[in-house]
Write a structure and sequence with these properties.
WalR-like (chains A, B); 50% helix; Tscrpt_reg_LuxR_C (chains A, B); phosphoprotein (chains A, B); alpha/beta; DNA-binding; homodimer; 6-stranded parallel β-sheet
Chain lengths: 213, 213
DNA sequence: CCGCACATCAAACTTTCGGTTGACCGGGCG
DNA sequence: CGCCCGGTCAACCGAAAGTTTGATGTGCGG
């Protein structure tokens, strides 16, 4: 083992979660929590200033930059620390965004502490660390490609989420109702649901569309 | 100050959050974390066995009983500990359910530690502890009772937002479809919409219900 | 005690949505 | 070039959602 501890940066908007991570990780002799950030912007700033080996990054911050954007900003720099995403949701959109942003791992917050510590060591060693459940979801996606919604399908789905009827959507987009239905049928198939409200719920959960707020 | 510490029970499905709460609260000289529960069921069990003054209760557990149900179960017993709800969302549906279940307070997880400690002391003293943002929402509701949704209506609407059909909702809540429709008709009238998706969109915009994410 | 709000249910009705089938067109690619 | 995919549309039918009317029970406050 190395003689210098692994220096960690904790990025989460919840003080309670930061305290929990600090308590759990500082208990490990080879770890050293060297900084905390309550916003994604602050995490990018601190990571750029150097002095960290691994960043533990939340995805959903109350306000401001999203964790995946921060991850991309951090990993884009040469000699950047490894970023380990630690979040509550294991949705496809979140996982893919994190992986594409260059995350070295993806863990769920309900993971037991020893699993978390192991993942940090794996990431520090330059390897990938995916939670079993997350790895499983990625495998699923690979097995069934063509899950991605087309631009037009997302456009229709967004309007459904805004509360419009097929009639209203068809007028808004200068389409026939038949076309709107056609798009929605494809959306239902891709999302694995069978109603418009379920499609919206699934799409919001996967961050495919935005919900006002 | 009293000579005996306030004994706490932490109920949250995330080990990290429990560790964080423990770290933050054990630092207070007059607090003593006397137990942890990873499920709502376990929290009810432990609370019933006695030995706690205040329960810190999360609302969303990954599986099993909901936090508001657990709160109701705990506060229903004579000599029960005070329950302080500590969650991520400040929607009407969650807040009303918690308050009606007998919660002594409602805090958000992004609250600073000292606010949390203060709320625990307030709850232990037998008073109500509401986060400022939450208190404000409750005030708003009182001021405009006309279009306020009843608890039952919110409950139905939340399930609609989760993508369930009337049939599924009726089974989930042990109602007839007629009753579900009846509630929705009232919801539509109060929100000024005329479809379920529009109702969900309006409710999310007004933060009446929670949309995952 | 009476009224009112809330929650519950029933039945019949209209409208919208969901699912299917089939079709046309334009563009990208082997 | 021929093929497939994305986007467009039509007609149809059954299922679900939404509308209307009306009714019952319960609890709370004037």
């Amino acid at each position: 083992m190395s003689t210098t501890p692994i220096r960690l940066l904790l990025a989460d908007d919840h003080p309670i979660v930061r305290a929990g991570l600090r308590a759990v990780l500082d208990a490990e002799p080879d770890f050293s929590v060297a900084g905390e950030a309550a916003t994604a912007e602050r995490a990018v700033e601190l990571a750029a200033s150097g002095g960290f080996d691994v960043v533990l990054m939340d995805l959903q911050f109350g306000v401001g930059m999203h964790g995946s954007a921060a991850t991309a900003a951090i990993t884009a720099r040469p000699g950047a620390p490894r970023v380990l995403v630690l979040t509550t949701y294991d949705t496809d959109a979140d996982i893919l965004a994190a992986v594409e942003a260059g995350a070295a791992g993806y863990l769920l917050k309900d993971a037991p502490p020893q699993e978390l510590a192991a993942a940090v060591r794996t990431a520090a060693a330059g390897q990938s660390a995916l939670a079993p459940a997350v790895a499983h979801r990625l495998m699923d996606r690979m097995r069934t490609p063509a899950q991605a919604l087309t631009r037009r399908e997302l456009e229709v789905l967004q309007l459904v989420g805004d509360g419009l009827s097929n009639q209203q959507i068809s007028k808004r987009l200068f389409l026939s109702q038949a076309t709107v239905k056609s798009h929605l049928v494809h959306v239902y198939a891709k999302l694995g649901v069978e109603s418009r409200t379920a499609a919206v719920a699934a799409a919001v959960a996967r961050r495919l569309i935005r919900q006002q707020g």
